[in-house]
Write a structure and sequence with these properties.
Blueprint (H helix, E strand, L loop, with lengths): L1 E2 L14 H6 L17 H13 L9 E4 L2 H12 L5 E6 L5 H7 L3 E9 L3 E3 L1 H7 L4 E7 L11 H14 L2 E5 L25 E6 H4 L8 E6 L2 H18 L4 H36 L6 E2 L7 E5 L6 H9 L3 E2 L1 E2 L10 E5 L4 H14 L1
Parallel strand pairs: 1-12, 3-4, 3-6, 6-7, 7-8
Antiparallel strand pairs: 2-9, 4-5, 8-9, 10-11, 11-14, 13-14
């Protein structure tokens, strides 16, 4: 079976610097339990250093560690919303928000991403979706699986809206390091936003290809008074759970350093697989590779001569596994989602079989 859905980097055939990663945990300080709600100072300084290398000024005091992006969302929903309140999330996008929101008794309302030679936020539809119970707008930057970044014009529209209505911006930036090309109109991170309460999420899972280490973080931004109140309250939530392990916090500086090597390998593969997909599909195919700016995924628009489910079942008969667009709430058919993380040989053979069926 040629699995073109692989999303686990530790199962995708990458050579990890194992000595560096395992050696990072040989730290005697891990034998001492230091319950710090926001995370150990040295670990938060390491995260601040990660942003500094990318020209983002983030003070350690604005950083709060979590065990994962999913936990970050759960804590933020607890912080911002009461039962029955709602958050706006994009679609198409990764189908995780509904589950996380339901567990916090929060409702999800969708706003659309639209495609015109590239994906963009429909800011007018987003504004129209805001209600008196909207507490947060989720931005996935770049989005999964469309690979679209937030643009400066989007941010110029959203920050005043959020400031006026008392709504927080949640920016999921776990794929931000995987842009395929520069773009002056792109917002690589919302860590510098000061006009509205903002929370930026990231972690080791994607930036270092280390999901098993279970370490993520939230960067808190916005007007000083709102930021201070939010920090105090979310630290109370974090203090209630104290879920982040001490060993991974002490290991974090070395894990980030080792992760640069892994990240470069991942970036090289996803770029090469995307180039191969474009070459294989070509300009005269009945299918189209939709424009993608970053991330680990590509979307293939295929003829609507059959449903997405029928396409996927047909490809299964060719021993090729892909995901249908309806997994990600695409509004229409027919789309197939392919993981660019897939090992190159498997990806090429799988794409060859897809082209054969087209």
């Amino acid at each position: 079976m040629l699995d073109l859905t692989e999303s686990n980097p530790t199962r995708a055939g990458f050579a990890y610097p194992s000595d560096e990663i395992l050696g990072a945990f040989a730290d005697a300080r891990s034998l001492i339990y230091e319950p710090k709600p926001a995370g150990l100072q040295a670990a938060r300084e390491a995260v601040a250093g990660y942003y500094a290398v990318r020209s983002h000024a983030v003070e350690p005091a604005r950083i709060l560690l979590t065990s994962s992006s999913s936990e970050s969302y759960a804590w933020l929903f607890k912080l911002l919303a009461d039962p029955g309140d709602e958050v706006l999330v994009p679609h198409p996008s990764y189908p995780l928000f509904e589950f996380l929101a339901q567990m916090e008794s929060v409702r999800v309302t969708h706003y659309p991403l639209v495609y015109h030679d590239g994906w963009s936020i429909d800011t007018e539809a987003l504004a129209a979706a805001v209600s008196g119970r909207t507490r947060a707008i989720v931005l996935v930057n770049p989005n999964n699986p469309t690979g679209s970044f937030v643009k400066r014009c989007d941010l110029d529209a959203l920050v005043p809206l959020c400031a006026e209505r008392g709504i927080a911006l949640l920016s999921d930036e776990v794929f931000a390091d995987y842009a395929f090309a520069p773009d002056a109109e792109r917002v690589p991170s919302l860590t510098s936003v000061d006009g509205a309460l903002t929370f930026c999420l990231s972690g080791l899972s994607k930036i270092a290809g280390l999901p098993q280490m279970k370490l993520g973080w939230i960067v808190i931004g916005g007007p000083p008074a709102l930021r201070a109140e939010a920090t105090e309250r979310i630290e109370l939530i974090a203090d209630t759970y104290l879920s982040v392990g001490t060993p991974v916090q002490h290991a974090l500086p070395k894990l980030l350093a080792a992760g640069e090597n892994v990240q470069s390998r991942i970036a090289s593969r996803v770029s090469e697989n995307l180039r191969h997909l474009h070459a294989a599909i070509g300009d005269h195919s009945p299918a189209q590779v939709l424009r993608v700016e970053g991330g680990w995924y590509a979307t293939l628009r295929v003829p609507r001569t059959r449903s997405e489910e029928e396409w996927c079942l047909d490809l299964l008969e060719q021993d090729v596994l892909v995901q249908p667009g309806f997994f990600y709430d695409f509004e229409s058919e027919a789309y197939l989602v392919l993981s660019l993380l897939t090992e190159a040989g498997t990806f090429r053979e799988g794409v060859k079989r897809i082209v054969g069926r087209l």
